[in-house]
Every structure is written in C-alpha cells, then in structure tokens.
C-alpha cells in the first residue's frame, strides 16, 4: 500500500491512474477504523477500481477544541487494517497542505444549519463541506463511500455532488447501511470513549427508543445520559429541506427517526427507518 501525505503527490498519482483508464474509489475517514469503515471498503469491492482511503481528522468540523483533542487516534493500527483489506493507497495529508488558506463564503441550504445535528453543531457541516471538496478536487474519484449513520452528512455529500460535480465528472456517491454491534449500538469511533457500563446503558436506551416510539416525547435525561434531539422525518421532506432537487422516488413515504444523545461528555448519533 502506498502512503501519500502531500496533496500535490496524490493529484499526480490519481492523474496517472486516470491516464491509464483506471477508476478510483475513495473512502474518506478520520481514522480509528472499525467494522463500519470496513463495510465501506467492502462495498468498494463491487466497483472495479483502485482503492484510496483518506485519513484526516478535520479540525474544522469539531465544535469544541476538547472534542477534537479527544478524538481517538490509532494510526499504526489503521495502517495495518487498510493493508489487510487491500487498500491500494492511503492519503494522509497535513492540515496546512489540505485545508485552504482562505475559506470561501459557504452558504448551505437551510436544513444544514437549522435541523438535526446542523442545529446543534454550528459550523460543523461547513467544515465537512470544505474537506470533502478538497478531497474530491485533489483525487478526482469515480466512486465515494459514506455511511448512513451520518445521514445528514450523506445529504451534504449529495448536495455537494449536485452543486459541483454532477455534470462535470461521473462521480457516484454510494451510501452504505449502518453497522451495529451485537447489542444494536451503531459503530462509531466515539464508542471507544465509553466504558463498558456506559456502552450497555446507551445501547439499552437506544433499543428502548427503537421499540417504544412513544418515548419520543418523554424526557429520558438523567445524570449520565441526556438527549439532544429525537425527531421523526419523512425522507423526501428532509431531503428537500437540504436543497436536494432530485428527490429519489424510492424515498416517498419513507420515514426515519434521528437522534443525538450524550453519554457523559460523549455525543453519539443514530438513525433508523420506521414503518
Ligand atoms: O465521516 C467522516 O469520517 C468525516 O466526516 C469525513 C467524511 C471523513 C470528513 O472529514
């Protein structure tokens, strides 16, 4: 597996691949890889392509310095996992190289600042927008893979695609289902910040919410556990609040529950389809 740390070099590498008629899959990550990331890698195997994973903990998408500082980092282990899973190239840029010096004035559709995570994490989606555009422009991928656990992020990626890349190249955004552990907890790098007792507590709470939707309006907060939001959305409505113009027909009448909860200081998100 090649490891590339400079933007100029990755562009050179991917231009060379394109000139040899190779397709490129990009799996963007912030590291601390788990089975959720592996499922993205696995999905990329359905597309004949050179597999590039990126690893960059993007400071622009964290709301608090403490959250950024505490984000788990396991680079050596991640490199071994990527090698074992047949990734051809790891792009691991430095922040001064990958983040632009001047930020454009970003104006995202209403939902990204007023709904779900966007309401509670000011600036988060602008931060994701900046890094994802940088990665696409540097690598020029044909396929990109994102998990449904970060559903609103997926809407952002679809929006970026619609606004900038739909007519230019044939980039395909592939969304992959959430991967859960045996207790039903959605896999997330942040789960590593929980102790066993907290993990048991949070998976039980989320299961309660899934099974007893009437709890939606019941405050469940206590000292170690608090709910930031739990909301039910019709998906075509949600997509249009995020500026997506071509609402896929298959979304009609589909509904999902979205939630964000705190266990101690750790913030977790989840979402699941309901009938
Ligand atoms: O989902 C993530 O890991 C990050 O938000 C992403 C897409 C790699 C951008 O930093």
Itemize the secondary structure elements and their pairings.
Blueprint: E1 2-4, H1 7-19, E2 24-29, H2 35-44, E3 50-55, H3 65-70, H4 75-84, E4 89-91, H5 95-98, H6 111-114, H7 116-120, H8 124-139, E5 143-147, H9 151-165, E6 172-176, H10 196-211, E7 225-234, H11 235-241, E8 255-263, E9 266-274
This protein binds pantoate.
What does this structure look like?
With 275 residues, this protein is an alpha/beta fold. It folds into two domains: 2-176, HUPs (Rossmann fold); 189-274, Pantoate--beta-alanine Ligase, Chain: A,domain 2 (2-Layer Sandwich). It contains eleven helices and nine strands. It has helices spanning 7-19, 35-44, 65-70, 75-84, 95-98, 111-114, 116-120, 124-139, 151-165, 196-211, 235-241, and strands spanning 2-4, 24-29, 50-55, 89-91, 143-147, 172-176, 225-234, 255-263, 266-274. Strands 1-4-3-2-5-6 form a six-stranded parallel beta sheet, sandwiched between helices. It has a three-stranded antiparallel beta sheet with strand order 7-8-9. Helix 2 links the parallel strand 2 (24-29) and strand 3 (50-55). It is globular. The termini are far apart. The mean pLDDT is 92. Bound molecules: pantoate (PAF). Pantoate is lined by residues 28-30, 58, 61, 128, 131-132, 150, 153.
């Amino acid at each position: 597996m090649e490891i590339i740390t400079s933007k100029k070099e990755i562009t050179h590498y991917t231009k060379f691949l394109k000139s040899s008629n190779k397709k490129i899959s990009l799996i963007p990550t912030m590291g601390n890889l788990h089975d959720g990331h592996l499922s993205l890698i696995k999905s990329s195997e359905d597309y004949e392509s050179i597999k590039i994973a990126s690893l960059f903990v993007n400071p622009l998408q964290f709301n608090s310095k403490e959250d950024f500082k505490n984000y788990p980092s396991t680079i050596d282990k991640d490199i071994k996992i990527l090698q074992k899973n047949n990734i051809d190239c790891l792009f691991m840029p430095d922040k001064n190289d990958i983040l632009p010096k001047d930020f454009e004035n970003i104006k995202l559709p209403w939902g990204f600042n007023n709904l779900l995570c966007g309401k509670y994490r000011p600036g988060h989606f602008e931060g994701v927008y900046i890094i994802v555009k940088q990665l696409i422009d540097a690598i020029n991928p044909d396929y990109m893979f994102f998990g449904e656990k970060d559903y609103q992020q997926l809407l952002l990626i679809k929006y970026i695609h619609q606004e900038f890349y739909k007519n230019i190249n044939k980039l395909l955004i592939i969304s992959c289902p959430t991967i859960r552990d045996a207790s039903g907890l959605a896999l997330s790098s942040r789960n590593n910040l929980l102790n066993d007792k907290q993990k048991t507590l949070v998976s039980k709470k989320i299961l309660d919410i899934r099974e007893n939707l009437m709890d939606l309006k019941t405050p469940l907060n206590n000292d170690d556990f608090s709910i930031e939001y739990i909301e039910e959305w019709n998906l075509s409505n949600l997509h249009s609040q995020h500026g997506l113009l071509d609402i896929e027909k298959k979304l009609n009448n589909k509904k999902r529950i979205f939630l964000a909860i705190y266990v101690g200081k750790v913030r977790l998100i989840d979402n699941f389809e309901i009938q």
